[in-house]
Amino acid sequence: MSMFKDIPVDVGVIYEGERIRRNDMQVELGGPTVKEKFELAKVKPMDEIEDGKITIIGPDIKDLKEGGAYALGILVEAAGATLDQGLEGVIERRIHGYLNYIEGFMHLNQRYDIWIRLSKKSFQKGLNSFESIGKVLYRLFKSELPIIEKVQITFITDPAKVAELYPNAMQDYESRDAKARGLKDEDVDKFYGCTLCQSFAPTHVCVITPQRYSNCGAISWFDGKASANVDPKGPVFAIDRGELINAEKGEFSGVNEVVKKRTMGEVTQVWLYTAFDHPHTSCGCFEAVAFYIPEVDGFGVVNRSFKGVSVNGLSFSTLADSTAGGRQIDGFHGMSIEYMRSKKFLSADGGWNRIVWLPKEVKERVKDFIPKDVIDKIATEENATGVDALKSFLKDKNHPVVARWAAEEAPAAEAEALEVKEEAAGTMMPVATAASLPIMAGGFKIILKDAKIYANKVIITTVKSEKSEKR
Ligand code: ZN
After folding, report:
1. 128 C-alpha to center of ligand 1: Å?
2. How close is the Cα of 216 to the center of ligand 1, in Å?
3. What is the average pLDDT across 453-471?
4. For a tag site, which of 18, 48, 151, 356 has the least CB within 10 Å?
5. pLDDT score at 471
6. Res. 416: pLDDT tops 50
7. Residue 346 in contact with residue 274, Cβ under 8 Å?
């Protein structure tokens, strides 16, 4: 793009979705090893903003040791005659998209979770200062969102300064979220969709409703509305909710239609309030994952910043890998922390009565939204670090899922195996044919279309807890 001819590297949509591996990176900013990092947008009065000003507090990129990970705060302060604080979330979420336009620059996640890498190659080409990064951001903000008349950008790498500003940023996110609470899905006839993550997850459409934040936790229904208004051609768009097909599961005809269209037919049905059967797709930037634990017939939740392994022995990144990429994985649900504060939080599956484990840090953040009669019955890493310990904990506390165990054990038919041998006499006959047959393996869903299956041996086993009994 010609507006970037003074920038040492290319800038354009084609660089979106570009991954930079550890071996290829010059520096990392934020990310899992850095505790405090953030990006924040603030709307300010016109006279408080110096248009185009770029400030660097702390060492610049060229002064950071190669291969290291550093604290970072990005502050985008904007002003405009018709700009108000209701647009801060919208402006802030654009940082992700715009920074990913830069060749050799990777930006993941949002808010307090940002993770940035600059490639060695782009660094060697001369991209060695936040001055250039700031210029790209500034020009894209001005050209893509004309409602912004003035904008100044600050990069903070001084760890002490990042630590000082971090609590304020967290408070800003919280008050923004609090403002968006209260409205119900039934009260509106429009939802919002977001495809900002399609560069990384091509079959993902975030469906944002008053009671379901975007997976990343950075776009409320109000943000969606504001974004679609100021930038109708942007990544966030209105969805006519359409007809309510299933109130319990959260299925709407308008959502199905839009998702089908925007995923090129990959996803045709979405249930907003459940992690089973047709769960909302998961992109890659979700704040947390809810995962089904079959042994206790309940859900665990683990968030991105949780360092240990969750109660089923898997870390956040392993669980995230098995659900991310725009797929619908039965029993897995990438989601925002704010969604846990919603009355619709996995409501079709039992809501909080079905949650059995979550990190202490998350429990603390959402404690005011957990029903009083169940809060002490939900384990954290302090109560249980494995499924057996979890089972005893839940039993001791008489967690609501315990009642489900009894109901399931009653008709427990002994697992019985039935073997069918297909004698291979000359040509083999198919043992099964199917128009569309999904197979779940290794976290992937493989769909065989018009399949004929041949086998030397077929083993049919009745398992103790049938899928249908879990619901
Ligand atoms: Zn996302």
Report:
1. 28
2. 5
3. 50
4. 48
5. 47
6. no
7. yes
* Dist CA 51 CA 360 (whole Å): 43
In the reported structure, the alpha carbon of residue 273 is separated from the centroid of ligand 1 by a whole-number distance in angstroms of 18
| Confidence label for 456 from pLDDT (cuts 50, 70 and 90) | low
Please tell me the distance from the alpha carbon of residue 76 to that of residue 82, in angstroms, as a whole number: 17
Å from CA of 367 to ligand 1 middle: 25
Ligand 1: distance of its center to the CA of 38 in Å? 17
How close is the Cα of 331 to the center of ligand 1, in Å?
Answer: 19
Q: For residue 2, give both structure tokens.
A: 């010609």
Q: How far is ligand 1, taken at its centre, from the CA of residue 334, in Å?
A: 9
Q: Is 108 helix (H, G, I), strand (E, B) or coil?
A: strand
Q: Provide the CA 454 distance to its chain's centre, in angstroms.
A: 39
- Side-chain half-sphere CA neighbours of 109 within 13 A: 22
CA of 435 to the centre of ligand 1 (A): 32
Please give the Cα distance from 314 to 197 (Å, whole number). Answer: 25
Is 423 or 341 the better-scoring residue by pLDDT?
341
User: CA-based Rg of the chain, rounded to a whole angstrom?
Assistant: 24
User: Stretch 269-294: mean pLDDT, rounded?
Assistant: 96
Other Cβ atoms less than 10 A from the Cβ of 144: the count is 15
What's the CA-to-centroid distance between 286 and ligand 1, angstroms?
6
3-state secondary structure 223-255: HHHHHHHHCCCCCEEEEECCCEEECCCCEEHHH
Residue ranges and CATH numbers for the domains of the chain are 2-180 (3.30.1650.10), 185-409 (3.40.1470.10), 417-470 (no CATH)
The pLDDT value recorded for residue 446 is: 57
CA of 337 to the centre of ligand 1 (A): 13
Q: ∠ CA 47-49-54 to the nearest 5 degrees?
A: 155
Cα(65) to centroid(ligand 1), Å: 30
Expressed in angstroms and rounded, the spacing between residue 71 Cα and the centre of ligand 1 is 22
| Sign of the dihedral through C-alpha 47, 95, 41, 74 | negative
Q: Which amino acid is at 232?
A: P
DSSP conformation class of 378? S
Q: Which residues contact 240 (CB under 8 A, 6 or more apart)?
A: 189, 190, 254
Cα of 218 from ligand 1 centre, angstroms: 9
